[in-house]
Specification:
Length: 126
């Protein structure tokens, strides 16, 4: 859902549908705005994959809107990340948590960014 300036105003995910319509009893004839999540959490396409991953993990998101100048251009999903590395993104979080110094964390960030940047943005058509 976008506003008059083509900026994201809200989003509806499968979780919204299940929680609000199936389990919550919201009538199906109501507009999408009745079940959408707002405000939308997003990441600019110029930001690193590491930041996108931390945002998703920190906010328990399965979908993250990708924007350019605040306008939606794609959606990054936890499934995208799992397919790219063949294991859960939570393993990346564990790796980050295991770092014992700022220098080690910087190395972990660099490895994650290098590994995913090209592949994920390619999935989003970048």
């Amino acid at each position: 859902m976008t506003d008059a300036d083509a900026r994201a105003a809200g989003v509806v995910t499968d979780r919204d549908f299940v929680r609000k319509v199936v389990a919550g009893g919201v009538a199906t004839h109501l507009p999408v705005t009745a079940i959408m999540t707002a405000p939308v959490i997003d990441v600019e396409s110029s930001e690193g994959i590491f930041q996108a991953l931390l945002t998703m993990l920190g906010r328990n998101l399965h979908h993250l809107l990708v924007t350019e100048d605040g306008k939606p251009t794609g959606v990054l999903t936890s499934h995208d990340l799992m397919l790219l590395q063949a294991k859960s993104p939570l393993s990346l979080a564990r790796n980050i948590e295991q770092q014992r110094s700022v220098d080690d964390l910087a190395v972990a960030q660099s490895l994650i960014d290098d590994r995913f940047r090209t592949a994920v943005w390619a999935q989003l058509g970048k």
